[in-house]
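Supplementary Note 2. Why include the ligand at all?

Several targets in our set were suspected to adopt different conformations when bound, so apo predictions alone were not considered sufficient. For every target with a known small-molecule partner we therefore ran a joint prediction. The input for guanosine-5'-diphosphate is given below.
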Amino acid sequence: MMENPTVAIVGRPNVGKSTLFNRLIAERKAVVEKSPNVTRDRIYGRARWKGETFEVVDTGGLDLESSAEIAQNIKYQVDKAIEEADIILFVVDVREGISPLDREISQKLRKCDREVIVAANKMDDFSAQDEPWEFYNLGFEDVLPISAEHGKNIGDLCDKIFARIDIDDFKKNSADDKEILGVAIAGKPNSGKSTLVNQILGQERVIVSPEPGTTRDAVDSIFERADNKFKLIDTAGLRKKSKVEEDVEYYSNLRAIRAIERADVVVMMIDSVEGITEQDKKIAGYAHDEGRPIILALNKWDLIEKDTHTADIFREEVYRQMKFLRFAPVIFISALTGKRVGEVLDLIEYVYDQTLQRISTGLLNEVVEEAVQMNDPPAYKGKKLNIYYATQPEVQPPVFVFFVNDPELVHFAYERYLENKIREAFGFVGTPIILKFKER
Ligand code: GDP
Ligand code: GDP
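The joint prediction is reproduced in token form.
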């Protein structure tokens, strides 16, 4: 999976971080759950500039009242930024000048090995104000005046970001990664993710294993199985447990999102004893929206009292609660005892093959024609939908384009019917598929 450079936005409250974040992003990737002391939901987005893509993280997710809390939070925020990002945008306010908090942040940032760009924000009127010279006193080479609110110099800022990132290096690294199947083990805290990771790494031939607390580049574990290489994404993060109680859910969601972004396949760990929770739905929903193949692993199966129907009952309950994941295989495992952990790896390979399936136009149209013959699209507003033909232009996730007389006439139920027919004919087990309708 292609990996993009990540830019983190840091700064004290009110300098314009969220305004800048919203300016930069083309596409909001996630609305992360609000936890008690997190008052912002915007946190993670994707930006595009001159054909290149980068991820943006607004690390200032904590909005605190007292100055003591703010100061304490700065340390946390900056640590997160350094951990998450390749480049840091340090936002300051030209109207207020350098404040003690700005100095504190810059002290921390100077010690890290990330590139830092100072965005001197609220420079609304370029002609009326001087260059923001005073901000060079913070000790960074790059200081750029911007106005987040009025969209001034944002392009120059993006140029500066890319001047500081070796984009070819990123591309080369992702090309090297092509042969390795990236797996994200997602799930809420205590669902058994770390136990599964340890079980797998204990069973398989490990090539690279991270030590907790080492650099950002070594957090993935790579192992080999038969002729295939797998990468367990972000496993150091899995092992490390947050100390801040209220933030556990918030940051575990953020981590899950970032792991899912980088994954080819997502293994969603569900605690069988607890059943499906809102957090499970949220994480799974995100994997689904991202088009990733998903395996639902019902873990701690050793703790469940079973008879011959138990598995079926659990499977139905999972699908009932997460209707959007009916295509995802369910497997009952025990990460602790190792039961069916090998099968999880088999399934990962299988669903990955499924998401790479490409159906020929001829075969696809046979299936579509038959589907239409069996169940003619119902008329809508007195007009009838005509499907002329379909193609599959993309894989991973598979995309199907239907050329029709009028896309407005496609009813949700009929779209689902077509999706079911495609799945009946070709499988696509475990992978979301996308149907698009275009006027011809
Ligand atoms: P954050 O706390 O750092 O995320 O700051 P916000 O993005 O919430 O912005 C704080 C305030 O500054 C808001 O009232 C914004 O409208 C304002 N603001 C942000 N960028 C600019 C700017 O470029 N010029 C001016 N004049 N105001 C801005
Ligand atoms: P994580 O927070 O998702 O990484 O969860 P952990 O791997 O730390 O597991 C949380 C707790 O559940 C630990 O006490 C594990 O020993 C336990 N656990 C994990 N998997 C299983 C399992 O399959 N069966 C049982 N009985 N306990 C498990």
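Residues 187, 189-195, 238, 299-300, 302-303, 334-336 surround guanosine-5'-diphosphate (ligand 2) (CB under 6 Å). DSSP finds 13 helices and 17 strands in the chain. Comparable summaries for the other entries are listed in the accompanying table.
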